[in-house]
Design goal:
It is a single chain. The chain is of the alpha+beta class and about 240 residues long. Helix content is about 25%, strand content about 25%. The strands form two sheets. Strands 5, 6, 7, 8, 9, 10, 11, 12 and 13 form a nine-stranded mixed sheet that branches. Strand 11 and strand 12 form a beta hairpin. Helix 1 crosses helix 2. The longest helix has 17 residues. The chain starts with a helix and ends with a helix.
Length: about 240
């Protein structure tokens, strides 16, 4: 792999900035100053240092974002800030996209990746990947309404949802909802079918991932190796069950 391509794939910089860094003698390969961006490197064997920091090779990027209100889950938008806009330019690449969408005013966990195969498996309707949401409703839900929720509800367009687990807290106006599908505005529409309204919604899990409680709204981090392994194991389980 070319050195400048390697630096770009790892999110260090653009290829043009990589060439500038190399010309400025700010990149070393196995302890020697790199002479050109087209030199061949082995991502799995060579030690590459960029401005004094060793670069870790990632075949794919996996990023967790704590999405704030008002941000859209899209790669680009002409009017609103997107989840990709929350990432620094040197981290983004044109293959990244949000794995699943959150409504503009829904908060919480969004997975960003450039691994299209894994994302396809996780997002396939046949996969039934579970997602947990913390919610608050305008009016308390009764036990009878919670039972209807768990049996599946008919939405305004006639669609009948799959059963969804709901855990009520306090007076029943808040709790945790677990879905295994993700129709447009589904939770809001499910509450609407009960003559109720969502006032707060935050995704706290996606498959095996849990929202990192140390991330402030709008902050992000790379997934840990354990989290990536959990995603791969989840994908394998999905494939075996289909």
């Amino acid at each position: 792999m070319r050195l400048d391509k390697f630096l770009g794939l790892c999110g260090c910089c653009s290829r043009s900035d990589a060439k500038k860094a190399i010309r400025g003698k700010n990149v070393t390969v196995n302890g020697s100053v790199a002479k050109s961006g087209d030199m061949h490197v082995d991502p799995n064997a060579d030690i590459i240092v960029y401005f004094g920091k060793e670069v870790v090779y990632r075949e794919y990027n996996y990023i967790m974002i704590n999405k704030p209100e008002g941000v859209v889950s899209a790669t680009e938008d002409g009017r609103d800030v997107t989840v990709l806009d929350l990432l620094p330019p040197n981290v983004r690449n044109d293959r990244m996209f949000p794995c699943g969408r959150l409504d503009k005013n829904t908060l919480g966990l969004v997975l960003i990746t450039d691994n299209g195969e894994l994302a396809h498996e996780l997002l396939s309707p046949k996969s039934h990947v579970s997602k947990r949401y913390s919610f608050k409703a305008e009016h308390p839900l009764t036990p009878e309404e919670a039972k209807r929720f768990e049996n599946g509800l008919v939405l305004d367009d006639g669609y009948e949802t799959l059963p969804a687990h709901i855990e009520l807290c306090g007076d029943g106006s808040e709790g945790i909802i677990t879905l295994t599908e993700g129709k447009y505005h589904q939770i809001k529409r499910m509450l609407n079918s009960l003559d109720n309204k969502i006032t707060y919604l935050e995704r706290i899990t996606f498959g095996p991932l849990s929202l990192d409680g140390t991330l402030e709204r709008g902050q992000w981090r790379y997934l840990t190796e354990d989290e990536i392994d959990a995603l791969r194991a989840h994908k394998k389980t999905i494939k075996e069950s289909l």
